[in-house]
Amino acid sequence: MSFLTQETFDCRVAFADELIALAKQDERIVAVCNDSVGSSNLVGFQQEFPDRLINVGIAEQDMVGVGAGLALSGYIPFVCGASPFLTGRALEQIKADVAYSQSPVVLCGMSPGMAYGELGPTHHSIEDLSWLRAIAGLGIVVPADPDETRAAVRWAAAAATPVFLRIGRFKVPAVTDSFTFGTAGLLRDGTDITVVATGTMVSRALEAAAEAADQGVSIRVLNMSTIAPLDEQAVLAAARETRGIVTAEEATTTGGLGAAVAAVVVSSPSPVKMRMLGVHREFAPTGNTDFLLEHFGLTAADIRAAAVELAHV
Predict the structure, then answer these.
(1) pLDDT tens digit string along 150-177?
(2) What does 103-151 look like in DSSP terms, one character per residue?
(3) Residues 118, 119, 120, 125: is their CA dihedral positive or negative?
(4) Where is the Transketolase-like pyrimidine-binding domain (predicted)?
(5) Residue 4 pLDDT class (50, 70, 90 cuts)
(6) For the domain 11-167, what is the CATH code?
């Protein structure tokens, strides 16, 4: 499997297509955005349902509050905005109006991680998983590809629970065939090392596993699309059945996927060594997304190297 030669897709397109399809079936579905109709890929939704898209302007706190009010009035609001602004500017409203109040709002963090590339750390959203994990009562889902994105949108529309969907902009290949909230997907079995990846890193983990096999290292790949609640049983099984765990995320390792997995592993009856791949508490230099992922050691080669090194410790 080669990440560089496979056809790749923008998950925002799958998100928008599925949202429109669902809205045709259910008039309760509405979209709320922060002057981001284009970047949230809601142009088609606006054309189909002009009375069901609410653009609050650049006012993220209001956007989340409006979404909570709509949810409590019987609507199914998809609240969409660039992830750094949705989660950073409106964190209090996400905590109080959505999670604490258990308002069934679908928060859609668009273009997360370092998808905005050259726009720099102000537009990067590498902290979102960390600060949202600290909020009780909020599901966190990071789809790995277009099919999983569509499935997550369908699930969220029907779930009637507060949830954050991290909708990627950086193009990825299709690698999944199912989605179950709260359950890690076993995409490749292995006996030496487990790679727990999420979002854009899942396809790269699969490529790393294929390359590591040529070096005699057997890698299990888990797609941890649900960050909260974490599939602790899958992590415990990995600690019990393989000799080490590598986590890979397009996010800061301070409080994100790696931290969540480590908290389970450290209290496991069978603790194992770990390596956490991600951004280690620093801001990024200027550059496009490909450059930044390489800069922070988030390529298939980096995942493979970490797994092979851990297998020989």
Answers:
(1) 999 999 999 999 999 999 999 999 999 8
(2) ---EEEEES-BTTTGGG-TTT-BSSHHHHHHTSTT-EEE---SHHHHHH
(3) negative
(4) 9-174
(5) very low
(6) 3.40.50.970
